[in-house]
Amino acid sequence: MTTALPIREIPDHLGDEGDSAGAGAVLTEILAVAGRRLRHLGRAPGRVLGVVLSPLVSMIMIGYLFRGAIAPPAGGSYGEYVFAGGAVQVALACMGPTAISVAMDLRGGLVDRFRSMPISRSAVLFGHTFADLLVGLLALVVVTGAGLLLGWRPHTDAFSVLAGFGLIVLLVYAMLWLGVLFAMTLRGVETISVVTPFVVVVLPFLSNAFLSPRTMPAPIRPLAEWNPVSAVIAACRDLWGNPAAAGGSFPTQHPGVVIVVTLGVLFAACFTVSLRRYRTAGS
Fold first, then answer.
1. What confidence tens digit (pLDDT) does each residue in 141-179 have?
2. Which of 215, 210, 223 is nearest to 78 (CA)?
């Protein structure tokens, strides 16, 4: 039996005098949904463990065990080269649990119950993504600790290091909304359980996470270069002073532009479509 949430009445359209009170009510609802999500994760820690295991396996199996067999494209330590790819996998791994959680709420009728209440239409989805963002931050801390143990070191100032992790956090949040979109579109938990792991595995290998796109077959090279994951990884390596893949293409030379455009479009599309589908779910 699902525990009732402390719901406040929230008008669909706020006037000027009600903006502050309305914003506070929306925040209350977001925190209530996020708290419920975190309690569920506390009872099923395996979902959190899955977010951590995927990047750890990549760093250990590829970055550590194969470090003597694979040379970094720009020289230096391959362990330092591959760390950014492992850190970015945290963002990709967060997508699946969010999608499954929202899909289970849809299947169990909880979304219908929320829609019948005077609750902000976006609070439920923001609550899910906020809670899973906290999980992603925890996973990123664990993966960073493992990376330090395996030999990763930043070679720049503290601001640059934090800026690199900030980019990964932005990617985490964009991927969470992609997970929400999967849930609102695919609906079936079984289908989501097949699709999301496929994305988590394929996207890093179609990027510069482990190898330079210049070494890939010509038909695949543009996909790897324009992959937003590649842009985030390239920017992080630059900010951390780690070995980076060389190349003369536009996305290689201007990863910041690719990040702003691709992640901006991705977030806007996922948020807009997910919210529209949520409003009509069960109708």
1. 999 999 999 889 999 999 999 999 999 999 999 999 999
2. 210
Q: 111 falls in which pLDDT band (50, 70, 90)?
A: low
CB atoms within 10 A of CB 202: 11
41 vs 52 pLDDT, higher one: 52
What global pTM score does this model have? 0.84
Q: Mean per-residue pLDDT for 41-53?
A: 78
Let me know if residue 91 belongs to a domain.
Answer: yes
For residue 125, CA distances in Å to 6, 53, 97 come to 16, 25, 14
Say how many domains are in the chain. Answer: 1
Per the domain annotation, does 14 fall within a domain? no
Range of the domain at 79: 34-280
Cβ-Cβ contacts under 8 Å for 66 (sequence gap 6 or more): 78
Q: Name which of 198, 267, 205, 248 is nearest 230 in CA terms.
A: 205
CB–CB of 103/186 below 8 Å?
Answer: yes
DSSP annotation of 9: P
Predicted local distance difference test score (pLDDT) of residue 11: 40
Is residue 131 included in any domain, yes or no?
Answer: yes
Structural domain contains residue 17 = no
Q: Are 169 and 90 in contact (CB under 8 A)?
A: no
Return mean pLDDT, the chain: 82
Residues in the chain: 283
Token representation of residue 266: 């991705």
How far is it, in rounded angstroms, from Cα 195 to Cα 188?
11
